[in-house]
Amino acid sequence: MVTPLDGVTVLDFSTLLPGPFATLLLAEAGADVIKIERAGSGDDMRNREPRVGPDSATFALLNRGKRSIAIDLKDPAAIGRLKPLIAKADVLVEQFRPGVMQRLGLGYDAMSAINPKLIYCSLTGYGQTGSRAATVGHDINYLADAGLLSFVSGADGNPAAIPVPLADIAGGSYPLVINVLLALLQRARTGKGCLIDVAMTDNVVCLGYWALARGWATRQWPKMDCEVLTGALARYRTYRARDGRFIAVGALEEKFWREFCDIIGLPHELRDDRRAPAQTIRAVGDILAAQDAAHWERAFAGRDICCSIVRTMEEAAADPGLMERGLFNRRTQAGGETITALPVPVVEGLRDRGGVRSAPRLGEANSILMTPVP
Hints:
It is a single chain. By secondary structure, the protein is an alpha/beta fold. It has two domains: 9-206 and 326-368, Crotonobetainyl-coa:carnitine coa-transferase, domain 1 (Rossmann fold, 3-Layer(aba) Sandwich); 246-309, no CATH class. Helices cover 34% and strands 16% of the residues. The strands form four sheets. Strands 5-2-1-6-7-8 form a six-stranded parallel beta sheet, sandwiched between helices. Strands 9-10-11 form a three-stranded antiparallel beta sheet, with helices on one face. A three-stranded mixed beta sheet has the order 13-12-14. Helix 1 crosses helix 7. The two termini are 39 Å apart. The relative contact order is 0.15. The model has no long low-confidence stretch (mean pLDDT 94).
């Protein structure tokens, strides 16, 4: 089976999550991804819990099907040993703070001189230029700087940490893959590589499109709990059932909202949830709290209302609907054990043949390194 990225070689200098997840997507589409890791300890994700045997389960999920080279990049001979790989590589991904690759002699200008066709992708929180370029940060900081965290309310009313690495993936991994694929298409026409500057903060700003539209058009900038998408109306909120489970109501459109109201028996005088929002929210909450989640799941089954029971991750991983889609069919090996591979947003027809693929042992591909080249 020929996959879209057969013959594409990616040198991956990244660690932890955003870069490795991006290169996992490229590997799943057929690219030969070679991890360039720190000699001795490798990618820090290798040491994260939980473990499958001696290996990190998270590392195994994020690095399925890749190869590994362990090398000391501070060694003056390192660049010479890497030169043959750089010369034939298609893509280079790095995730260091701005300036680090240049100090190592591995910056874009130096690598482009070796291989003018190289697509060189730098992934950081704030980009390679600007006053924040050297600022350290994590996912919560990027979301805060992009304005998105201001819409996420915790039980105490304060902005709450989002329990998924939204900026890392939606602002880092996905934009990296998109831009690498675009650059490969452009190179096919021009024969030239390019530098790609992926800034996670920049790339999550667009996720607040609705707030930007409101602010730019009306000069009335949205606030927490004051907009439909932040829970201001009864039709788009979560509610607690009698047994402590939660119900996610997303009946935004009027036809879905009317159907939902009919099912739960909401009094007609409260169905205009814009007239007295707090009153309608309380009434819906009281009705849903009178029954267990299972009761409402049966009542909602087969109806057009956009309502779901909030699943645990354990329940989602065993969900028949997701199983039917083949989401958990693939496997990876770690520590001599086989576990379910991480589902990725690459459609089956564009992926490798499947089967069990392993995450690499540290330095297992060092044999492809050459004697230092001057």
